[in-house]
Write a structure and sequence with these properties.
The complex is a heterodimer of chains A (about 150) and B (about 300). By secondary structure, chain A is α+β, with helices and mostly antiparallel strands. Chain A contains 5 helices and 5 strands. Helices cover about 35% and strands about 30% of the residues of chain B. The chains are: A alpha+beta (about 150), B alpha/beta (about 300).
Chain lengths: ~150, ~300
């Protein structure tokens, strides 16, 4: 099992440097460009990458991760297609202003998909609808109450 | 960036009455790291020699950067750097003398580029090449090949003689310096892990024919295993049906569990299987190990063409 883990420093607006860990595993069976796309998305979700941050140039990242440059290009194209990054001629690749909003939208979508799956699993397992609803309401009670206490 | 660096079109090469390459077609896009995989004697070196115009096609044509390798041999040579399996080096020379020889026989020669690589590999300049190990000769051949600033680098089994550390340095150089500078790299190998580690495209040659040519990420995306779990053992007719589905290369059954090896259309297959009269109660999609997929192509178990 070989995995390449390299610390890459991205220059962020101002003088701050942020380290982002890109772990690419060539043996996982997951397309490498998808691994990069997912890790950049994750970095956005957890706030490691912010709108206005620069992504490393293709050549540098290829050299850094020992991955074919075309694969990085493919990952960047995909992220650009999603509206998360854009390339500015002569300046590099930058995280877009709407990246966070787009990610939030996607995460809400994914959340409802999970809900759909959980409800269907419950039905398939023969759990009573009212009983399930009561359980959901209990969860809502505790989670939202906790949040209210915090704010 | 969709330009073609190397185009092989219905190439056939005979050695006397023996057919070594049969109707071989291949496209290498500019800027790719193209791994050319095959067993000993599959036709890798013959293909490479034909790309360089060293061997004439019996039928079909080969173009490198748009130049016909037979009619425009000189143009091809001035754009291609070649590291052969046997290293065409003069044993009785040292590196300094070898560089002088190459400079005199090349159209372009950048000694500073060669020096960078010689330093990187820490090769002794004044020692006779005769005393070099096989690995050092490979490193020297690569350094010299870079001297004429080629757009395409063709390497025949470059890592075969390298120890693990030299191999890692070599592959890292290939990607980090050469491919990152936008050059096309075409390298043959019988080492699966080399291809997996650095290539973005792969072609597999077996018995003088191309049996696979694809992007590595595409293979990772399309070659999956579907693990189907049935409530009870399934009727033999159902297993036959699963085996007959498009994009299913293999179906294995063990009790209630059936494993389908797919070559694409995974989502379509899943919805087809869900609608069966005997649907599985659980379908899991697993990633396959690329190495074992490639191995099946090399062995000739699979054939896409």
């Amino acid at each position: 099992m070989i995995s390449f883990a390299y610390k890459y420093t991205i220059l962020v607006t101002g003088e701050r440097h942020v380290a982002i860990w890109l772990n690419v595993n060539i043996h996982s069976g997951i397309p490498i460009y998808i691994q990069i796309v997912e890790q950049v998305q994750h970095a956005l979700d957890v706030g490691v990458l912010q709108p206005g941050d620069y992504l490393p140039p293709v050549r540098e990242l290829a050299s850094e991760l020992t991955i074919a440059p075309n694969t990085i290009v493919k990952a960047y194209n995909e992220l650009q297609h999603m509206g998360l990054i854009e390339s500015r001629p002569g300046r590099g690749t930058i995280v877009t202003a709407q990246a966070n909003a787009l990610r939030h939208e996607k995460r809400v979508e994914a959340l409802y998909e999970r809900l759909h799956a959980v409800v269907h699993d419950a039905a398939n397992m023969g759990i009573d609808g009212q009983e399930f609803l009561a359980a959901v309401q209990r969860e809502i009670g505790s989670a939202f109450d906790k949040r209210r206490e915090l704010t | 960036m969709n330009k073609v660096a190397i185009l092989v079109d219905h190439l056939t090469v005979n050695y006397g009455s023996q057919c070594v390459l049969r109707d071989l077609s291949l496209e290498v896009p500019v800027g790719t790291i193209f791994g050319f995989l095959g067993r000993n004697g599959a036709g890798k070196t013959t293909t490479i020699k034909t790309l360089l115009g060293i061997r004439r096609p019996t039928a079909g044509k080969v173009e490198v950067l748009g130049y016909d390798v037979v009619r425009q041999h000189i143009e091809v040579c001035s754009h291609v750097g070649y590291v052969s399996e046997t290293h065409n080096l003069y044993d009785y020379l040292n590196i300094t003398q070898m560089c002088a020889f190459c400079r005199d026989t090349s159209r372009r020669w950048k000694q500073n580029i060669v020096d960078t690589y010689l330093d990187l590999f820490a090769l002794p300049r004044t020692q006779k090449i005769k005393q070099f190990s096989k690995g050092m000769k490979t490193q020297l051949a690569l350094s010299l090949a870079m001297g004429s600033e080629p757009d395409i680098l063709i390497l025949d089994e470059p890592t075969a003689d390298l120890d693990p550390i030299a191999r890692e340095l070599f592959l890292h150089t290939l990607i980090g310096d050469i491919a990152a500078a936008g050059k096309t790299v075409f390298f043959s190998s019988h080492i699966l892990s080399d291809i997996e580690a650095v290539a973005d495209h792969v072609a597999v040659i077996e018995g003088g024919r191309i049996v696979l040519s694809a992007e590595l990420d595409e293979l990772r995306e399309t070659h999956k295993i579907l693990r189907l779990t049935y409530p009870e053992g399934l009727p033999p007719a159902e297993l036959e049906y699963l085996q007959s589905l498009p994009h299913v290369s293999q179906a294995k059954q063990e009790g209630q569990v059936v494993q389908l090896h797919t070559t694409g259309m995974v989502n379509e297959l899943v919805s087809l299987i869900k609608e069966r009269l005997y649907p599985p109660h659980d379908i899991e999609t697993l990633h396959t190990d690329l190495g074992s997929v490639l191995l099946e192509y090399i062995k000739g178990i699979r054939n896409d063409h």
